Structure prediction request, 158 residues.
Amino acid sequence: MASQEQVTATPGSVASEVVEIWTDGGAKPNPGPGGWGAILRFRGIERELSGGERATTNNRMELTAAAEALEALKRPCRVTLHTDSEYVKNGVTRWHEGWVRKNWRSSAGDPVKNVDLWQRLLAAAAKHRVEWRWVRGHAGNAMNERADELATRAREAL
Prediction:
C-alpha cells in the first residue's frame, strides 16, 4: 500500500488541488459478510483503504467506504468521489435534506435505514468540497474495479 502525501491547506481553506477518490462496498450474500474499499489519489500518490464486517449489507459497506475515505483526509480538500452506488450518490446529493427536515424519516414516514452511517458520511463530507460522481460498476472502469477488488479481499479475509 502506497502512503498518501499529506494535503496541505491554510486553516479554514480548501486545497486548490483535487483529491480523487474511488469507493466500493458489498456483502455476499446480502445481508452477510461484507467488505469495503477505497482508493485516494493526490498528486500521483495513491493510498488504498479497506475493511469488512461479518454481518452487514451492500448499502452499509458502500456508505462505510465513502465515509472512511473522506475521514482519512487530514485537511479540508476539494474532492471528486467516484461511487458505483446510486444509493450513496442520491442520498448525499438529493435525499438527505428531506430526511433531516423530517427527523430522519423517509417520504413514506419510515425511519431512514443506515441513519448512523448517513450521519457519519455527511459529517465527513461537510469538512470538504465534494463533487459526487456515479460510475457504472463492473463496466471496465479500472479504478472502480480496483476498489471492488479491495472490498472483495476484505470480505474474504473475515
The chain has four helices and five strands.
